[in-house]
Amino acid sequence: MKSLKFQAAAKLATTGLLVLAGSAQAHTGHDASSLVSGLFHPLGPDHMLAMLAVGLWSVRVLPAQRAWQGPALFMLALVAGAVLGLLGVQFAMLEQLIALSVVLFGAMLVMSVHKVPAMLGLGAVAVSALAHGMAHGAEAPASGFAVYALGFLATTAVLHFGGVGAGLGLQKFMARKATAVVVTLGSVLGLTGLYLVSQV
Length: 200
What we know:
about 75% helix, disordered N terminus, mainly alpha, single chain, globular
């Protein structure tokens, strides 16, 4: 019975992620000068999935007293990337890199069952956040950047807390199956990221 429930949950998660992926769009071409637009910008599937994954990965890999470091590092690098994007600095193939970060975070979740140095993961978090931030900053006019940044940082924090909450919930209520659930979520996340890459 428990196995059937797990399989049903995995299928539901897969379906939900694919539905989100189906709504993937480029990041340009919308208002980016208000608090509201900043709040909604990270809710695109690539940004949202990456930020949830960072929170979950941090709980799985980092010591309990340091689980905040993954989300905090992401937000700091996100701001730095946004400033660079505002100044016109961008990675080549930025949209592809953002979609690939979803694949990367999926792989990191799968690998979290092994003893991989946390510093490698934190480095990946920082670089990925820079790319996400550049996408945010490239769309924001200088005159509205402050309130726009406040908006996307607030939503980013909420998404990170969601990932952290999911990780803590797994540890508390599904300790025996937590590894299998995380590997499944990581695999689905990676496949979803590949789909997002194909749509860019």
